[in-house]
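Bench notes, afternoon.
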Amino acid sequence: MTRAVVVHHTGGPDVLTVEDWPLASPGPGQVALRQTAIGLNFIDTYQRSGLYPVQTPFVAGSEGAGIITALGDGVTGLKVGDRVAYQGQLGAYADERIAAADKLVPIPDGISDQAAAAIMLKGLTAYYLLFKTWPVAKDETILWHAAAGGTGLIATQWAKSLGATVIGTAGSDDKVALAKAHGCDHVINYNTEDFAARTRELTGGRGVYVVYDGVGKSTFEKSLDCLRPRGLMVTFGNASGVVSIPDITVLSRKGSLYVTRPTSAHYFQTRDELLEGASKLFAAVQSGAVKVEIGRTFPLSEAANAHRALEGRETTGSVVLLP
């Protein structure tokens, strides 16, 4: 048995219950992990609420770091005692867990377990968005919504290191200041300014090459007005609700725009793709191009409070749960 945070039925943060959960031995291709840090992400709240359906009951969470304590048959390239991190494997909110070995990434020396847990999902998201979805080039201007959030702080620093001009948005003066300190050339407080008009002003009326938006419904339509002709709208999250386009001709009217809704599952379909992304992410952290910002930590037993803080926009940077 292991202590875990379990969802028996979907709903608000109160449905997260701390209890003993069965822990099997690792099967073929699996390892047992003693977890040392667990990342908190909006996808955790989507699965808990039922927006992203998951068969109940389930152990919440999909990102973490820990130490391998046992190997199943057929596992190669890893050994007991290795520090590893992962993302995209449901069952993270636990002291111990079983994980698929081919989804684990060794943590390099010089990167702490907390830092690894804080950046695996968010950092790999930033990687595929900046390098694959729209390969950001030097001197391009981009717009990143929620620039003071966990993914935003990683991505804006990384984009700046690539030579881009980075415009960010944030919802308070404190968050504006934090985003400016992490790579943004300009930050717009979307609660006090019209971010579309301000973006047009900052770009001399031309618009940006790409908008990266993890906020969703509340920012989507105005974001289209921030793009130059044939620009790309990347909607990768639903923090304010799911986006819909009832009239797709809006894309032609606003400049023959492109829209995509990417997910990590389609960018990391092979282990080689995962290792390539993780290698670039860890190298960016080790070089200092990306500084990891852990805004808050919570004991694992307070996962419900962590969800309330995340959904209430009370957090900045990454949030980590500690077993």
